Amino acid sequence: MTIARQPYGKFRVTRFETQHNHEFVTPSTAHMLPSQKRLTFAQAVEADLAKSSGLDRIPKLGMGFDSEDHAYEFYNAYAGRVGFSVRKDYVNRSKIDGAVASRRFTCFREGFRQKDNRDLNVKRPRKETRIGCMAQLVISRQSDGKYRVTHFEEKHNHELVAACRVRTLRSQKRQATAQVEGNGVDGSTTQPKLVSGLLCNAVGDQDVHGYQPIDCNSKLPFRKMRDMKEGEAERLQQYFQSKQLKNPSFFYSMQLDADDQITNIFWADAKMLVDYNDFGDVVCFDTSYRLYKDCRPFVAFIGVNHHKQMMVFSAGFLYDETIDSYKWLFRTFIEAMSGKKPKTILTDQDAVIAEAIDSVLPEVHCRICVWHVYQRAVKQLNHMFVGSGSFINDLSSCFFEHEEDEPFINAWNNMLDAYGLWENEWLHQMFKEREQWATAYGRHIFCADIRNVQLCESFTASLRKYLKFDFEVISFFKHLGKILNDWHYKELEDNYDMSQRLPRVMGDVILLKHAREIYTPKIFELLQQEYETSLNILINQCTENGSMFEYKVSIYGQQQEYRVRFNSSEDIVACDCMKFEFMGVLCCHALKVLDFRNIKMLPSQYILKRWTRDARV
């Protein structure tokens, strides 16, 4: 389609070609096309939530309901899972008491639109939606007062609506609205309830249902460290309430200070909650806003999915950075995630944050994120970039390219020698604390290889402009939503590509053919690289003790050896390099031993679900 602007300012279509020289994608995958990204990620996840949380049953003859409304709600929930909208059709009422005797619920495409002579004068007639679909559910009142299914037609004569668009259907919109309006009425639901007022100034005003967005029970005993812009707290509450109205799964909480002023804010939308449930084993707590001046105190809980793509699990604003505020933040985070705790949390180098995590999450492994340390190094050593094009590369190499102790120390010392930095006190202190952040240490702790994703750089940089105090806070949320929306559709695109083709295998290798059907392409490529390296590995020595074997292996032409232990009774393999423990993919040394032992398929215990194609199943 070609358009051209006319002299009076409007654009008109000047050329339109309807013929394509290729097949169309199916309606169920059309939402994955790049130009369809106007759909918000919330719509897709809402459909997933509705699909997973609804009743699993299919209507059957004789099924009973207490009222016609219950029957409608059941059929509409079923329609939401299948992909159509429900229309309330005819109703027969008793001539004695006027109560409903029988009723029919139909697909919204039932029947045909009646012809109207006035349609001839309509320039833009409405699209025809009714095409004679016979799908329907009929209920009748029985002698016991219950309504039972007397007729059910399951088949439709049209394609059903894709899951991500179900919430746009009329009956599904009404259902969502009804859920919000009825939320918390009977006290049996744990869904968030809406805040009735803008501010919670009365500490004793507690929510009897256990969830209160304004957290009056965890007030700070002192005044907050930083002030919000005038009127911003009210705008934020109105924004959060509107988000919760659209989706009751939206979670937010606000902490007050001693003056009953909103101080700290936390939120997580439905998509974030789902993402954390699937990939929340490793969390990076990002406080990169500290690197910039005049920015709102934005913090985020970040992770990676099975394509090694970045995702945000939740976020917040902290206008007070004391230990009490951080404790509240981490407690609220776990509450929002239904009590599920991560295995590992990566943080900035901050004693207050470390103490708060140790207090709230003592069983969680806490590591300093190497990316945060690198960002601080860039700031501390910015004078070194002047006149030296190689320093940034050598600095980056020290932080990210050495997975073992000796090579890391050698690279560090070489950098200090080359640039005369032996007297730099900050680098000296960082080296003393290297076991807390350097990737050569703590390799027994699973980190999902987050160190290589460089999570925070582009994310924080893209938000920096909108975090400034002179920008309206709602503009920030719109921009953040756009970023997260783009990320979600990148995942959908990769999922679609993954479903259409398998990655190439370097040869006729059974193990690789098996692995490519299990792993996502990104993770499979990592494994294939390890396998390719294993072809050049030598087994130098083997010792045996019953079912236990110990191998010493090395890469051809290199002196460094690795110990690989193998238990033949259980097919358990473990390597000194701890690559599997650190990132969840077997190393080249372990793969060499498995091949030597004639094990041609990956043992199931070394396939982490979070890296597989079925990670979200």
TrEMBL record:
Role description: Putative transcription activator involved in regulating light control of development.
PANTHER family associated with the record: PROTEIN FAR1-RELATED SEQUENCE, PROTEIN FAR1-RELATED SEQUENCE 10-RELATED
Organism: Manihot esculenta
Main location, first listed in the record: nucleus
Domain SWIM-type: 562-598
The protein, known as: Protein FAR1-RELATED SEQUENCE
Keywords noted in UniProt: Metal-binding, Nucleus, Zinc, Zinc-finger
InterPro entries recorded: FAR1_DNA_bnd_dom (IPR004330), FHY3/FAR1 (IPR031052), MULE_transposase_dom (IPR018289), Znf_PMZ (IPR006564), Znf_SWIM (IPR007527)
Similarity annotation: Belongs to the FHY3/FAR1 family.
Alphabetized GO MF terms: zinc ion binding
Compartments (UniProt record): Nucleus
One biological process term in Gene Ontology: regulation of DNA-templated transcription
